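Hey, resending since the last one bounced:
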Amino acid sequence: MTSDTLTATTQSAAERFAPLFARFAEGVVAREQDHELPRAQVRDLLEAGFGRLRVPVAEGGEGLDLVEFADLLVDLAAADSALPQVFRGHIAWVEQVLSLPAGEYRSRWVERVVAGELVGNAWSEVGDGVTGRQQTVVTTRDGRTSVSGRKYYTTGTIFADWTDATARRELPDGSFETVTVLVPVHAEGASVSDDWDGFGQQLTGTGTLVLDDVEVDAADVAPFTDRFRYQTALYQLVLLAVHAGIAAAVERDTGAQVRGRTRSYTHGLAPLVRNDAQVLSVVGEISATAFTARALVRAAAQAVQGAADTAHLPGTDADREANVLAEIRTAQAQVVLSETVPRAATLLFNTLGASGTSRAKDLDRHWRNARTVASHNPVVYKQRIVGDWSVNGTEPPFVWDIGTHASVDAAAVRSQETGR
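The structure tokens again:
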């Protein structure tokens, strides 16, 4: 962050967390090479109050708005791109709690957040489940409510005290509704595996959660339609901050590598690489990408904050327009950063020789992480959605799902692929 662009609140938070982030950055390469989950770093963040930054001061938090918070997420991602993503589910659940009216339930969860409890995410499922129909089930019998199912892409859950899961619940008429349920991660019947095998963001704990008749509080089960409306934009904002942090890290590491080089090519333009105009031109493009990425995060965060500001006006034109803008701005930023940040992470290698590919330096992690983040919520769909809004004024979808379409015979597709 630069001090001339920050509010006093943001500056104070940035200065307080800066030493912690610097320590995280020092060990990030070793953690990735050893596949060491950042458990200690997550706990350090919680103890420092990172999980309560959005909670109002009057309720024991820091009271940051989403623009201030997003700036801090970028700084954290520059130190370790896994850490903001670990907190992504927690950030969304805190926002849901803050959207609730005053009362015992809200107070209970605010107290947990302020005390340093962490909430993970468990919305996704893999396999042949049909879109719109969760395979995870919430059941209530004899006054006991429990949940059973299997979740994947459960980012943050392996570090958490709770996980925010989606499921289906049978209604009295025999139909089903989609619900959310807060599940205690360490309860009997719950188990989490670190089996995420993606080539990037490897330390986010994005693995499998198995729930075998896990008892939950009935009060923690709610219709999915009760969620705050701008949740998808908020989820995307966190990923945008990760991208901007990666871009900042690419600029930082490129500068360090170029400044430290004493070997240069005979067909270069200067005795020292740091003075070679060709190399400096490449570094300039990387720097411009990092600057643009943070600016886009701030602009997107302003739009999402606008939706938060109108959340108490459901059903109004002001709330609808704010939510449309939040979704569109985060999508526009995603379209740009999904291309430019991985490109910047590739350009890094144009400033170095073959030594830049050394596994000990782990510079390729920036591209792998950026490309993995760009794979969330595939950008090709966002391009179409933004284009349809721009040309036709079509409202974007605020919630979507992934799975097997009801018209598709998954077994038949697999047999065609295998030739059986």
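The chain is about 50% helix and 10% strand.

Sorry for the duplicate.
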